[in-house]
Amino acid sequence: MVMSRKLKLNVPGMSQELYLDDTQINNIHLKDGNRLDIRFKNVPDYLTGLYLRYSPKTQSKVFYLKYFYEGKSQWLKLKPFLPNSYGSIQVSKEVIKQGFVLACKSSPKTDLKILINLI
To answer: What is the pLDDT of residues 31-52, one digit of tens each?
Structure first.
């Protein structure tokens, strides 16, 4: 498992860091411990709020998008990681799409032509 841990003690709420790569995500495996919130290193600006929540108990890996709306932090659950089916490329496309939807909902005066060109 290639992860850079900030602390030796892994407590809930502490985020770990990992490169956004399907092979590294697939190689995450712990036998026991607390649930991990993993941030991704070296990602574009539009993916800065992307997290992977890993549960050692169930071995599930689910993508989450963390964003701020009206001054509050919100978590948007995306799809679970599935090797060769739903990985880093698919979640990047979905984050772009969700960003488009959130931008449209947050400001009604947003020019839709500009946002459509971003997709």
So the answer is: 888 888 888 888 887 788 889 9
- C-beta separation of 80 from 60 below 8 A: yes
CA distances from 88 to 11, 33, 55, 110 (A): 26, 25, 19, 28
Tell me, yes or no, whether 72 lies in a domain: yes
Residues 42-59, buried b or exposed e (16+ Cβ, 10 A)? Answer: ebeeebebbbbbbebeee
Q: Is residue 2 part of a domain?
A: no
H or E segment to which residue 60 belongs = strand 60-69
Closest-CA residue to 107 (of 96, 115, 118)? 115
DSSP 3-state assignment of 26?
A: helix
What value, to the nearest 5°, has the Cα angle with vertex 6 and ends 71 and 26?
Answer: 90
Which pLDDT band, with edges at 50, 70 and 90, does 119 fall under?
very low
Indicate the number of domains in the chain. 1
Ranking 34-38, 92-96, 105-109 by mean pLDDT, the lowest is: 105-109
